[in-house]
Amino acid sequence: MKGRKNVPDDEFARYFWSRVVRTVGCWLWLGAGSRYGTISRHGKTRLVHRVAYELATGINVPTGAIVGHHCDRPLCVNPDHLFSGSQADNIRDCVRKGRHFIQIHPECVPSGEENGRHKLTASDVRQIRVRHAHGESYRGLAREYGVGHTSVRCAVLRQTWRNIA
Questions:
Q1: CA distances from 50 to 36, 83, 118 (A)
Q2: Looking at residue 86, what is its pLDDT?
Q3: CATH number of 9-106: 2.40.30, 3.90.1570, 1.10.1740, 3.90.75?
Q4: pTM for the structure as a whole
């Protein structure tokens, strides 16, 4: 609402909701914005799904918190489809739905010795697997190779280093 200063809250809410098409499921924003809708008020541009959540619940979403979509439609402003939380909550929601980048494109994630943070080599992993099969403990092997026992367990169980025979 450019050029309009200090519009009363009820008038702003009426204006806001007049820019929304309400369907049986998602309520879609028809105003400004491309991927995510935006609206300006008091010289500040805000994401419309945050505004919709605040108008519907009466709760001001704190800086640093997010408003996410259960429906995964960026232009949806249906309060029943929105949730407030942390970025970690948003990532968990994304992973639960199978939409996380790593789940969609695992080939883009460096693994094994291509990962710049690796401590083990392919040769180390082969030796660890053989030695564990002969009874050596995760903790003992971890101490020897300078890694955590979880790293050894994951390598032995092929949760990591899957490409190593």
A1: 10, 9, 40
A2: 92
A3: 3.90.75
A4: 0.59
